[in-house]
Amino acid sequence: MSGIKSISWRGEKISLLALGTVQLGMDYGIANSHGKPSEVQARELVHQAWASGINVFDTAQAYGESETVLGKVLNSMGISDSAKVISKLSPSLSPKDLPAISASIEESMRKLGVRQLWGLMLHRSEWLDNWNDGLGEILEKMRRNGEINYLGVSVYSPQEAKKALNTIGIDMLQTPCNAWDQRMIESGVFADAKSKDKLCFVRSIYLQGLMLMSPDKVMEKLPSAYQASLKWSSFAETKGLSKAELAAKFAKSLDLPVVVGMESSKQLEENVELFSAEALDPKTIAELRENLIPLINDELINPAKWNPTK
Hints:
10 strands; alpha/beta; two-stranded antiparallel sheet
């Protein structure tokens, strides 16, 4: 298994593939048919990720037992202080309840077994409306105390991303972007972040597994995405690539760290192999956009708007 390359940001070495750990704590994703892995499987997954060069682990307070499971494995490996762990505040909290927010961060650190969260993100960008009403101040105080290194926010749209980029104190974003959803590129979000020395982590490169499913399976699960799935499958075939290869090559062309949720060592091995390949060239990206984008709408690229059949 080849290793994952890194980029440099603010003197930090950031692996271009980050392990998304939502699957370690709960059943997740339209294509997930196995449920969450056992503790033994989780340990094997994190071990292999670290060995392959992945040094960023993405979790959240809302991901079930994910923080606890990840924390146990990192501690058993003796890398709790060297792994770059990003967690997110639970959206069930109130952005105005500062004592509860502070307590939840302490609890996350306890579960993860870390003395400092490398990254803490707001799980909902609406919380930025409260940034200057005490929220930003308490998070900055925890940063000064060494409990948090970088602050960020998870966003869903270019409008939310731009608001976050213009917020003093925000260092990083986590944004959706994939071959079906190129809004962050077209709106200049990635270019703007780079000019401000803020780091974007890209998620949803497989659109929760939707882009990897066969058109027949898509028709069964999410009929509204059938035409896009047909075109996507056909395009991959004409290029002699699997759908996973095409999606990963597109993501790699962004030259940004990509968060991929994985639930097994086999998936990890496959993703490390995919991200060791060459990125998609600009001509193919343009051709893909021309073929696919007319079939894409907000209902398809926003999982919150899906109404999947059972």
